[in-house]
Amino acid sequence: MPSRPQETAREFVQSFQRGEEKGFNFFFREFYAALTYFSYQIIKDKPEAVEIAGEALIKLWERHANFDNITSVKSFLYTTARNASLNWIRQEKKNAQRAKEFAYLNDVIENPITNQIVEAETFREIFLTLETLPPKCRQIFRMHYLEGKDYNQIAKELNLSIKTIYSQNARASLLIRQRIVFALSMIAFLGKFI
What is the pTM for the complete model shown? Predict the structure, then answer.
């Protein structure tokens, strides 16, 4: 009588080797719970351990014709589960590293983007305000700040006194500054809600 379980196991191995479902069911019952536990001890993630055990059994089934004894089946299953568990750990570490890098990059990128938005909005406000200035005032401001000309050059080109150039430029600067301060305070206010 004691030899009967070994004969039954041998019969299941042969059935499995022939690709019969009852052979696969035998190995599933014999090893699924143990493989799940084994994988869980490595990765500490129950749903993933269940997945790894199932995948190991599927890989075994795909190679069913190659196995002629229960020892080789057991060796294959545990090796496959161990390798998959270690691969999962490596992948999790990579994912954690990527998440850290993304968080860092997000901080690094987010600040310059915010700064670029503020800078772009500032320039937009300057140009919008410039269009609302009186024509002579606008012309003097453009010549001085955008073309880089000094007051003497502007006075000579426009045939105006330096005092007039200075006062028109000061007026333009004041109007633009007031509008920019208002616009930036609105951007800062709205930034709290983004």
Answer: 0.49
